[in-house]
Amino acid sequence: YMVDKGNHKHFMEKEIYEQPEVISRALGHYVDLIENRIDLEAVSIDFAKVQSLAISACGTAYLAGLIGKYWFERYARLPVEADVASEFRYRDIPLSPQSAALFISQSGETADTLASLRYCKDEGLQIGAVVNVRESTIARESDAVFPIMAGPEIGVASTKAFTCQLAVLAALAIGAGRARGTVSRQEEERLVRHLTEMPRIMSSVLNSIQPKMESLARELSKCRDVLYLGRGTSYPLAMEGALKLKEISYIHAEGYAAGELKHGPIALIDENMPVIVIAPHDRFFEKTVSNMQEVAARGGRIIFITDEKGAAASKLETMSTIVLPVVDEIIAPMIFSLPIQLLAYHTAVFMGTDVDQPRNLAKSVTVE
Ligand code: G6P
Q1: ipTM topping 0.85
Q2: pTM across the whole model
Q3: Centroid of ligand 1 to alpha carbon of 244 (angstroms)
Q4: Nearest atom, ligand 1, residue 58 CA
């Protein structure tokens, strides 16, 4: 299988721009487009009967899992335990055989994730794997395999695998909700419509924000530290934004729950540290804006990633505001991933780092 960069300077850039296409393919695997429903018929996990769900993964896959946790809890009313695999495997978690476990891994070979899987298998749980590589060890050892169909991902910093993982987790959470009676047929139809609209929205966002992200990246490349804030599913996304930036630009970055700002990171705020606030106009918006006010009051420079409604509602002065279209909550994490990926990418390009193969990192970590 030959993979090349096409017209792109780096694999990472190519993989960012491939997202509308690969997500649409991934969704095609889970969505019945005629009936507007999630098709989980062939799935061997009985979501209607499980009492809880354990999610374990590493790195970016873990952050996708954290967003998945919010969805399974909200849509399927299923209690979720989520942890990084290196902790999960050693925590002595009391697990019941009435639970299911989901392992998320692009490569399907990550040592800690595989060890967590085997641990859960020994405890008698039903095992599901959300993987990109279907022939991988993690896929082989699972009862149910949920392919993300992102195609080969070469850039060490994960982009399209992340959003495909999210798309699949969203579909699974809705499907689980249907099976459990917590998502009505009508609600399922509504959510599925949003999911299937997503690739088109992603394309238009990718086509419009690039110049702005590039000029912002020029500013960011001069900074030593960056703080990312978000609430709800934007909180794991804040962590993913920070991870992406540090991985490839080597700028120190942290992702924090917006509500935790006053419990620590607020002490760091000054005119030198940009604060990237991820806030679609959702049910948490007002809360996040009040955290943003706390940043502004201390002279912090705000990069505000919001939507049209959010931009209209906030009167705060920012260093930059990135305005995305208003989208449903179920697809917001995928749409808001795009500026975050582009910002990290262009910052790394300005810094002159090896974007596709950043120092000290490996694409797949097969040792503990
Ligand atoms: C490495 C990669 C990350 C990836 C993580 C988990 O750290 O550099 O991009 O998120 O491993 O990999 P997996 O293949 O299990 O998703």
Answers
A1: yes
A2: 0.97
A3: 12
A4: 6
